Amino acid sequence: MHLLPEPAVARLLRELSREQCYTLLDALSESLVNTSSQATAPAAERLIHQPLRTSITTKDQHTSLFMPVSNTANTGIKIVTQSQAHGLIGVINIFSPEGKLLGLLSATEVTAFRTALAVMTLFVRCSTVGKEKIVIFGSGRQAEWHARLALLLVADQVRSITFINRGCKRLREMKEVIAELQSAHPHVTWTTLAREDTPDHQEQLRSALASCDVIFSCTPSTEPNFPYSYLQPFKKRFISLIGSYKPHMKEIDSETLFSGGNTIYVDSKEACLEESGELIEAQVKEDQLMEIGEIYGKLPRTHPIMVPDGHNVVFKCVGMGIMDLTIGKTLLDLAGLGQLKRPRVSDENRKRAVRACDGCRRVKEKCEGGVPCRRCLRYRRQCMFTHPDHAEKVARSSSISLLERTTGLSRQNLVDSERIRYMERIIQHYVPNISFDIQSLRKTAEELNPRHRRSFTEGSTSIRLDEDDFEDLAIDDEDYMVKALPDNTTQYSGEFSYLNFSMKIRKKIDEWMKTAAPEASTETEPFEERWRATQLQSSSSLVSASITCLPPRFVADFLVQIFFKYAHTNNFYVEEDWLREKLNVCYTNPSSLSSDDAGSVCSILMVLAVGTQFAHMESAIPINRPAVDLSLMEDHHFSEDEVGLTFYQFASKLVPDILATVSIRSVQACLLIGTYLLPLDTSGLCYTYFGLALKMAIQNGMHRKYQGEGLSPRMIEVRNRVFWTAYTIEKRVSILHGRPLSLSDSDVDAAMPVDFPDLNPVGQVSNHTNMVTLITLTLKLGEVANEISVLRKSRKGQQQDCLERQLNLRKNLVDWWATLPEETDCRDLNSTGPLFRSNVHLKLDYCLTRIFLGRPFLFSSMKILNPTTPQAAPFKTPSGVSKNRSTLITDCVEAALEIINLCQLLRDESGLARASFTEFSSCRAALLVILAQSLTKRTERLREALEKGMVLIKIMSMGVGSARSAVSVIETLERAIRRLEEWSERQAPDNTGSMESAYDRFKNWEMLWKTGPMSPELVPLQEQYHAGRGSIPPVPVTPMASTPGGNDPMEADVASTEITTLSDYSVSHATSLPQMPRFGFDHFVSNFPQELDEFAAIPCFEPDAQHLASDMGNPDTKWVQFTHD
């Protein structure tokens, strides 16, 4: 048991290292996550319990407050007593789960520390908010600890700290504290400001607040410390409030409270609504509050919290008992270990991460830092941070009981218990009837050992490995290298590359020479570390010839302006100032260009080519917003397309030189070529060029975090932005068009883009927030795609779990979207906003992700019935799986309808762009979903959206050949469904269940024959003829040619499928078509085989249909092949 009185606690906290402080911060963040996640769980299943506080008052007027709390791993109670003689005295008791007292520590210093640390959990994550100028209201321990922790965690960012208080006395008492901090941080400017004895106090206060970045308010004030008007000019600020703890207290006014865009961060919604005077006076509702534990649970530990421009971060913290327990227990562990502050090594002199994870420590690898660390992420292993030294110490001490060893574990206990529960659930699934008591598990494990040894020795002699042998298996330190070279090129060498191994040998030789022959020369022979195939580059004449196609300067300037205005949106392709500078060289000094400028010239030509695709957006005549009559649109020709094609043809001649130089300009050039080809050949040439861009980015190490010193901060940011643009577009194209990914998420640790004003296009608002949001959205789309892939391959017994994970992905996606800013960036759809078009594109991508989530289940909702069965068996009551699937389908259809409305909004405001991949692909996906849903459910809303969408997609496909091809497929589907509707309306009054005549069958066949051109092939009728009913045999399809297979191999593939009837899967639905006769469907399908690949139904994922099939003869259940051919 440990006893920590007030002096010991104060000394321990003040000697914390930065590493130890982050340990405490991580532990506190994790406890907040667990508290928020279990708020709605049943009491019997909760791991965290915080009963109501109770108090007693003795006859001597001594009042004691009791605050119990438990996180299952430990139990604690904080007792605070107030007396007239001694004021407030508090103590925190920490117990083991069994009730053994582990330690006691004074509560006064801990309370101030843990409250300030709770503020820091959010403070350090708001990376886009400045931290240079800090203003602290207050002069007590809370104010002191806010300053101490800010300097400990972000010392390199803080430039000035100002303490503001009502009286001078308390500020004078802080003189020693300020002197101590000033000596430790001489680069920080310290200022104090008291209301009393300061005539111009308000002017000084206004000045301090107007320029500050951070406001820590730590005063139990009953009036606001300052008016909102003092915060002008309006900019991002971090504002925390921890001083007011009663309903009549308030530290800021309501206008400041809502300056975070109507989002107020809190530690506990329930406690803040009851105790915070600011929230009570402003009548804040619960849905306006956001618990930080809930946010931390949704984001990785290293993921920053994005703050929109012009918004503040407002955080109200009233404190919880779980904070005392978490910090108290962790401090007891530190005190027991003697882990006081050691001499600090500067970050630039460190050879390893500040804190190594357990996995890297175990195998003696160099931990690369981060949570999870990059090495664990790369090797796909679990990354954990515990206190192994203490665990080893406890394990070695034979005099300590098992109970004490258990209580010596770190804050991972809570996570470990949850992990064990999940493991037990998995084992129980694969090993039924297993018992988890120690004896049964020991017996089962011992039975496994002989089997393992027998299987191990069947092919070889018996080998016994000692613990020391395993130590020899540890891999020595391996690290990647990104070396800066001239011409914006970098050389990347992975951890286990030839070059790295060569350098390791060289290093070993140098070490051996210093030891064995110190008198020998230490000079090392130089050798060429990087060799380029320069002999493959063309002469400079090819570059000079390429710029001969440049238009007059005013035309080039116009096309460049169009590119950055309409094509840039939420991505980053090239720096505008650099591009215009290079363009000026092409016009004023073309002779200075060499073969090394191939990437730059190619980028210029492709910017102009993409500009021609969007040039129509500036037309005075709204050619992209025609009248309702679309008959003349199909063959509409844009003369500027020929100009763009000329630029592309000249640029494509430079591709060999681009591939040979492999610089960042090469990456940008291929990225721009792929962007030009997006509307022309998305899944072909476009996909190829994006793959080239990504491969060259890997060659330059752009997918890894750059830690060298050879590149400027601007170029590092350009590298990061260009890589993430290439990665996100290639990933979206690959997923949406069924292509394998070129790079997995686990291989990427490049830094996210940061707000770099120098890179913003001239006259435009920064799109940094949208850019990061699109990257995050694309990563979420990748998670959805992976989960769908798992679902397709999983067994029937596992499909329900997969479906639940799909629902969780949807919930997380929707919740994450709700946290994005609603002004200027992301969700601001005000047509007069500076980022209107970019925000609409972001919303389209968001809706497209929701479509992708639910699209695989659209066809699985169609029940399989045998139409020849007079009375079908009744349907079951919808199961939980059916309801979950229905939720995904409903959201998918709603997202499709939202896309149509968003495209209509674009058309009505700024106009639709015929070259926009985002607009066309989202509208295309939405129309396909609406058509698929129309097979089973026809409503006026769907019909109106379909009509509106057809008009919009025809506008977007004007003059784009590949787009017109895709639209023609959708038109074929739409005509077929419309004809089926007309037929069903004619047949509904006369449908009495009687069998149709041969003439009826002939007319049905004629209806489909008119839908589109027939396949010129002999298609055997696969429909089963049910004899014995007195019906006339079906009419076969007349062959159009005598050659089997016809001229189109694609049609031959479709003809070989077993899809024969629409009625097999579209009838007997509550709102579907009435019962229809069976008719050949082969030629109808053969006209649009590729488009139906957009819908990948989950095979065999139809429990209701399987249930029915057992009672219905032999219905054709292979209709799902419809989605693959």
TrEMBL record:
Keyword terms of this UniProt record: DNA-binding, Metal-binding, Nucleus, Transcription, Transcription regulation
Record's keyword annotation contains Transcription regulation: yes
Domain of life: Eukaryota
Molecular function via GO: DNA binding; DNA-binding transcription factor activity, RNA polymerase II-specific; zinc ion binding
Pfam family for this entry, one: Zn_clus
Example GO biological process: positive regulation of metabolic process
UniProt domain Zn(2)-C6 fungal-type: residue ranges: 356-385
Keyword Nucleotide-binding found: no
UniProt-listed InterPro entries: AtrR-like, NAD(P)-bd_dom_sf, ODC_Mu_crystall, ODC_N, XnlR_reg_dom, Zn2-C6_fun-type_DNA-bd_sf, Zn2Cys6_DnaBD
Name assigned to this protein: Zn(2)-C6 fungal-type domain-containing protein
